[in-house]
Structure formats: C-alpha cells, structure tokens
Amino acid sequence: MNISIPYGTFAIAMVSLLLIACSPSESKQTNTTALSVPADTTKEYMDAPDFTLNTMSGDPFTLSDHEGKVVVINIWATWCAPCRKEIPDFMKMQREMRDQGVLFLGVSIDEEGWDAVRPYAQKMDINYPVVVDDGSVFDGYGPFRLIPTSYIINKRGQVEYVAPGMMTERKLKPILEKLANR
Question: Which of 21, 43, 53, 175 could form a disulfide with 131 if both were Cys (CB 3.0 to 4.6 A apart)?
Fold first, then answer.
C-alpha cells in the first residue's frame, strides 16, 4: 500500500518535531519508552537514583538532601532550542512555588561543560541550581532518548513522572501543585 503525504504537510510535521525536542549526541540515544503516569498515592514508584554534582558556584548538590521537596530534574543543553524556551517558565515556577517545597534542578549534558553552561546560565540569570552531568545522572536516569526531558520526583524521593519534550507552565504547574499539596 502506498500512502502519499503532501510535501507541505511532511515539511510542517518535520519542523514541528524539531521544535518540540532535540536529540542528544548519538552515544546517548537508545530505544527507551517514556513513562508519563498520573499522580496516584497508591502506586509504588521507582526510587530516584541519587547523585551529587557541583553547582555553578562549586557547591555540591545531592539529590537525596532534598527529600521532602518536589524536585523537577530537567535534562537540557544550551544548544537545544526547546530547552532554552522552557527555562523562563521554570524560573517563574521556581519563584512562585519555592515556598510550597518545589525545587527545579537543571542538569546540562553539554559536552563543553561549564564553558558552555556558565555564560548561558549567567546571561539568563537562572534562579535554580544548575549542574553539568559527569555521567552520574545519565547512568541513573538515562539513556536520554531526547531532550529536554524532565523527571518529577515526589516528596518521598520517587520518580513519579517522566516528561519527555518541552514542558510549559500550563502543563507542569498543575502536576507540581498536586504533588506539593500531598
């Protein structure tokens, strides 16, 4: 069976796909199935793999130190347009939801490390911790099929949501409010 797709439709679909998500380098891609599950207190969730990485200021960030908070681990890179586009929403939610026990963490997978991340984070004035992955997050949470990808950790330190692709405040805030109020 031959299916004919008009070129214009195909082109729009391809451009839309590029705007939605960026693919990391080939070495970090595999066939993984993204999990997106609703908040449900009766379900058992996987414990979030712990890691310690240094923030831009050189202070260590250890995930397990933040148990009792809702943590959004956002996997991103400076070269990824959708990643850059979601950061302002994350900064806004960090300001608004900090007192409710919500914490965002940006985990960059830039191969250039701090040389690429530091100037970008300073220019954007990112108001939440940013770290550069040394393989620790990749080993625990990866391989990443696409970026951005966000892992939402509940107050018990469990991965409750995995959100592949760009997240907007409209999509993410209701989930965070639900988890913060549990």
Answer: 53
Which residues are CB-neighbours of 7 under 8 A, at least 6 positions away?
none
66 or 31: whose pLDDT is higher?
Answer: 66
For 156, phi then psi, to 5°, come to -90, 5
Give the pLDDT confidence of 66-104 residue by residue, as tens digits.
999 999 999 999 999 999 999 999 999 999 999 999 999
Radius of gyration of the chain (CA): 17
DSSP label of 109? -
Q: 131 with 107: CB under 8 angstroms? A: yes
CA–CA dist 170, 153 (Å, integer): 19
Helices 114-124 + 81-97 axis angle, to 10:
50
Domains and CATH numbers, the chain: 7-180 (3.40.30.10)
Q: Is the dihedral of CA 35, 38, 39, 43 positive or negative?
A: negative
Looking at residue 78, its amino acid is T
Q: Give tens-digit pLDDT for 64-73.
A: 999 999 999 9
